[in-house]
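B., you asked whether I could sanity-check this one before it goes into the benchmark set. Here's the sequence:
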Amino acid sequence: MRQAVVLGASVAGSLAARVLAGSFDRVLIVERDDVAGVAPRRGVPQARHLHGLMERGRQIMEELYPGLTGDLAAEGAPTTEVLRGSRWYLSGLRVFPTATGLTTLLASRPMLENAIRTRTLALPGVELRSRCAAVGLTGGDEITGVRLAGGEVLGADLVVDATGRGSRAPDWLAALGHERPAEDRVDVDLGYASRTYRRKPEHLDGHLAVVVSTTPGFRGGGAITLEGDRWHVTLAGMLGDHPPVEPAEFERFAATLPVPDVHEVVRDAEPLDDPVPHRFRGSLRRRYERLRRPPRGLLVLGDALCSFNPLYQGMTVAAQQALVLRDCLPDPEPARFYRAAVEVVDVAWGMSTGSDLRYPGVEGRRSVRGRVVGAYAARAQVAAHRDPVVARTFMRTANLTLPPTALLAPDIVLRVLRAGRR
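And here's what the prediction gave me:
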């Protein structure tokens, strides 16, 4: 009987278990938290803050769990067209409210996570052991299992590490004599503070969301409608400019955003709880694809492989990696998996860190190409405010349904340059 062990029952772990279920007799998910119910949990502290499920991520989840979007909508999660039912601001300018063909699913992170985990556990041969911590790996040249706290060993034909940014896999590999993966970091010292409010239909003229991007010179944040007629408001600041959690100061910080939309919600809506903070040091990428001999029997994906600012594409990139894993089955060879996964990660890493490196205070290598691309991206954001074609293309690349090179198509370049002149 072939057994796979997946470490972590979050989004990446559930998606990995979903695709493994077709090739293994038994898939055992090991999770240190108690995951019963729909609520933020200790292992996912960022779940209390805004999460963006990009359209490509939603499409993949819909492919793996047919009917998921409709089921969540029936349970109260709002859906809308990305620029028609919500407002997006880039560099303080609203993106032109045009049709994009993109669907925004406004489920909270705990609701979405619970939905895909429940559907995964309903598959034959998939089991969950919660409140159970992995403390190491077994094997030598090939990984053969997982050691649990208390001494139990789970044998496995394949171990998938989806434990997130705090993954211990590099330490575990080193303990077995394997090479550690190199790491890339771009530290931004981003601070969040979030609070929920009761939503009324007249708020924001009936729009379901507003997102104000953090860009050089601007604080950011957003207000997203969630299940239960709630507003989920997150405020954000970079490089130590963190929003406060004292309610009156939280509202004053909201008033300093470049547009008034988020502050209007904070000012007018009834608060349902107190603001809660979260600190994000920066993006972290572990270069498993550069290992000379990645050990068979172990794959690392999700935030354990590459973690982004939660407002970027983390859940969507995890979904893309799940498809890469599926394509490598039934006998996933690590080098092959990492070669394919790097193509997915490169796109999101370039977009997110490229945006971060526009801040003069963020440390990191800035190539000539990167500076040119950054300057062009800034002009494209201005053009997206004025030109519906640029707006549609920009949002499709941001949602990973088009490659970033779509913004370099000759007709788009011409539109961006024309808008810049005006």
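One thing to flag: The mean pLDDT is 92. Otherwise nothing jumped out at me.
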